What we know:
Blueprint: H1 17-24, E1 31-32, H2 44-52, H3 66-80, E2 90-94, H4 96-106, E3 114-118, H5 124-131, E4 135-139, E5 150-156, H6 168-180, E6 184-188, H7 207-210, E7 217-222, H8 223-226, E8 234-239, H9 241-254, H10 260-270, H11 274-296, E9 300-302, E10 309-313, H12 318-327, E11 330-331, E12 333-334, E13 346-349, H13 354-363
Parallel strand pairs: 1-11, 3-4, 3-5, 5-6, 6-7
Antiparallel strand pairs: 2-8, 7-8, 9-10, 10-13, 12-13
Helix pairs in contact: 1-12, 2-10, 3-10, 4-5, 11-13
Amino acid sequence: MSAVSSRLPVFPWDKLEPYKATAAAHADGIVDLSVGTPVDPVPELIQKALAAAADSPGYPTVWGTPALRNALTGWVEGRLGAVGVTHANVLPVVGSKELVAWLPTQLGLGPGDRVGYPRLAYPTYEVGARLCGATPVEYDDPTELDPAGLKLLWLNSPSNPTGRVTPKEELARTVAWAREHGVLVFSDECYLELGWEGAEPVSVLHPDVCGGAYDGIVAVHSLSKRSNLAGYRAAFIAGDERVLGALLLIRKHGGMMVPAPVQAATAVALGDDGHVAEQRERYAARRAALRAALEGHGFRIEHSEASLYLWATRDEPCWETVAYLAELGILVAPGDFYGSAGERFVRVAFTATDERVQAAVKRLGG
Ligand SMILES: Cc1ncc(COP(=O)(O)O)c(C=O)c1O
């Protein structure tokens, strides 16, 4: 019946269901650290902006209101350090997951084309390649890929699932290599505001990385994590105006416009750093508590300098760790959801309430 769905991998989260049932049977309830979904309130100023725009009977513009575009260019310059950003360099999109999944199709890729992404990665990069019939290819170092037929290269720093931050020099080297070989770079930077240790995460749009020009590079940003807006589907892309112009045209014809109240809420959210700082404090405390408890319990944590995850191992197959923690009422994601290189790790999200995080810490003996 459906040729497209047959190209897709098994939906991995279904495999976690039995462990979820085990964890849910714990006397003090489940602590679900498996999914990186925000649990704290949407900041009030954002809720107010959404509500104030509730009376929006007409179709929204695909490119966004001028106020939203100003907010996007302002944020990209102010927060990412990009220079000379105009409205032609920004495009609001409905959710970055949707962008990742449908970008290769919208770029016109198909059989014979290759899409590269990190060996350990957010699974939707592969899904996007498969949806259009392109060939997914994993890399350790993108500059070691064969550039033949490589039409799209995904970067992801800070990384989901490992929390690794790609150093600025490494990003610059990759961008130079991609430009030399005519490979389009999309850099998924949705955790950029969530750096904890070591060097600050840097955008591909920073002049030290791209030389102040945006040809061949696009950054992907989401408000889901920084502003607790996963439910709003608020995201945008910024960079090469030719690529964004083509995507704008496709979206004018094909829809996928950001709802007007979400556009208004996004503009306000990007204009306020206060709520980001507050949310960061909550996550920093949860991260520190969980990290100490896991290490005290014999786990080793790798990378995890940024993002909303601890990449943890007991030096055993990940499903054994998942089963072990489920008995303690704690649900985590097995590392092999993100590629076979993760088969001895689990991903522990610190997107749970303080109360649930404390419950996990107690069960781990912290
Ligand atoms: C690396 C990465 N990219 C994109 C997304 C999608 O975020 P959203 O669709 O909420 O913008 C996620 C969500 O977890 C992610 O981890």
